[in-house]
C-alpha cells in the first residue's frame, strides 16, 4: 500500500483533439508539441464555433487543409512579435520600417548636402534694394533672383561666369542667399604680404601697400571730388575747378597751363606768358597758400 501511495500516475502525452475523421471514426491521435505546434488542436485556442464549423466541413469531405492552416487575422492591439500576429506580418512591418528609415535618412542626407552648394552666376541685377543674381546650381537646375550678401562699404557687380557659394537658410532650398561672387579669371594677384587692393574688370586698381604708400592706376581718368572742388586727372590733361564758381579753374595739358577766375586769365605756353590784363608785380596776397 505504501508503494502504491507513493507511486505517481503515468501522464499520457497530449494528443491533437481532431474529433472524428471523414468516415465517422475517431481520428488518429498524434503527439502534440504544445502551443505553436502548427497542428489544429486545442492548444491553438481556436474559438469553439470555428472548431465546430471545421469539424462539419471535415465530415462532409470538403475540408481544405490550406484553409485550415491559413494564418489568423491580426487582433486589434496585437503588437510586433505577438502570438496573435499573422505569419509574415512582423517581417513586412520590419521591411516597411526599414524602407521608411531609409527614406528619412536619404531626405536628411539631401538636406545636409543642400545646406552649402556651389554655382555659376549667369546674370546680376544691381538696381533693387539688394543685389540679386541668376545662378546655375547643377546641370539643368537654374535659380533666379537669389540675394547676394555684400559687406558694408564694398560693392561690386561681377561679370557673368563667376563662381558663387550658396547657403540654404534654415536648410530651406527655397530660401537661398549667395556670398560675394568671385571671378578667378580676372583676379588681381601677386600682392605682397600685408597689401590690399580694389580693382575692376579693365585693370584699374587702388593698391594699399604694407609700407604705407598708395598706388592708384586708371586706364582712362581719375576724378577726385570734395565739396565745391573737383580734380580730374587723365592721360590728356589735368584740371582742378571749383564747382560753385565755374569760371575758377586750373587746366594743364601738353601745350599750355592756364589759370582762370572770372574775366581774368593767365596762360603759359612755350612761346611765353599771356594774360587778360597787365601783370602787376607786388607782394604775395596769400603767403600761407
TrEMBL record:
> Which positions make up the signal peptide?
none
* Span list, region Disordered: 1-25, 43-110
Q: Which residues form the Bacteriophage Mu Gp45 N-terminal domain?
A: 118-182
What Pfam families would the database entry show?
Phage_Mu_Gp45
Protein's name according to its UniProt entry: Bacteriophage Mu Gp45 N-terminal domain-containing protein
Locate the compositionally biased regions of type Basic residues: 43-60
Q: Residue spans with biased composition (Basic and acidic residues)?
A: 1-15, 98-110
Query: Where along the sequence do coiled-coil regions lie?
Result: none
